[in-house]
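Extended Data, record CusB/HlyD membrane fusion family barrel-sandwich protein
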Amino acid sequence: MLKKVVVPVLILLVAFGAYKLMNADDAPKAKPGNAQAQSTQTEKADAGQIPKEGDENKDGEEKKEEQPASRGRGPMGTGVLARQGATSVEVLAAKPAIRRGQVQLFGTVEARQQATITATSTAEVISLNVNEGDKVSKGQSLLTLSADSAQETLQQRKSALAELEAGIRIQELKHKNDLASLEIDKELLAISKKSVDRFSSLNSQQLSSSSDYEDTLRTYQSQLLSVQARELTIAQYEDTRQQLLAQRESLQSQIRQAQELVDDLNVHAPFDGIIAKIDIVAGQELRSGETIAQIYNPSALAVYVRVPMRYRLDLLPISDIKAIDRNGQAWQARSIRPINETGAQRLTLEPVAGSTNTHLPGSHVSVTVSYPIAQPTVEVPFTAVYDQQRIYVAEQGALRATDIEILGNTKTGYLIAADAITEGESIVTTRLKNPLTGMTVSVARANTGAKP
């Protein structure tokens, strides 16, 4: 029990002794003959009012200089820490002027003309004729495929078409023959009809047998059926012909499709462009619909960026909005439209004519968009703006908060609307941790023109 009491007491004594020792080292050693003067100077130092030699105003009063608070080494410090002095700040004189705004944004590069080439049938890659990044011309061979099934299908459909066309020709010849035979059949029918009439008259006069009349009548009826059958065949010919012609058109369409499949075995570039990606290798077996390569037109690239609504670029002539990326590529605004769901504006940028573009579709790029600002603005550093809506002005040794509207950026700061700021006002540029209106400040350095 005694040990638990003695140990904390010893620790406290050691800490107190160390504290007294550190404060004794920091205290100035007074000379024997100057004890009273040293005591007076110490009291003034504690009050922060040591006068500087030769610094007096015209009324003969001593100018008091504010001394920084001593931090001390002990937990309580010296007496100077009991008072908070004015915060030293740097200020900038407000200079309204017409300026061109800038804003740095990130966008996505997209190709407005691009194509994904896919396999139209099962095939094997025989050879690759280009590499990724190669420039190609319209119609240039990109790769060669092989597919026996496509060739066989094409040959089968061509054979079917030849057979069908032969059938159409046979039907046409048969129709001509039916037309000629119909005339003969009609003449034979007329003859048979006369025979029937004659034997009918003879039979009524009992000059011929009944069997002769019946034979003649059967011949007539048979000839009549023959004429009727041939007329029916002739009447059906046109419908039969239309059916055969429809079958021929269907086969011709199938042949064209099969021919396209065969032609697709030698893949060509659909337009002038750059090979963005190749997804296959030589010797690979492809399935129908599998991606082979991707090609894009470098002259049809565009960068799409989102611009905060506060910049209101939609109110400016589109030709006045320009941009430049980190590679020095120049871009010109093409269109701008609002994006309702995000409260932003979608800006479309196109490469300036004659410029070389090295970006790939789908890549991200940082661009600095520049645009004119019609109203006067004041340029302030980034450190001067709080919460994107407020700055502080040093006025008669104290801070005053001022609401602002950011109209643009520069490389080093913001461009804020000048309507809420008086020319020459001292804008605080030092970044303060917890600034408040009325907070005491002292100007350590001011740019030319700043009000004290």
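Summary. The mean pLDDT is 80.
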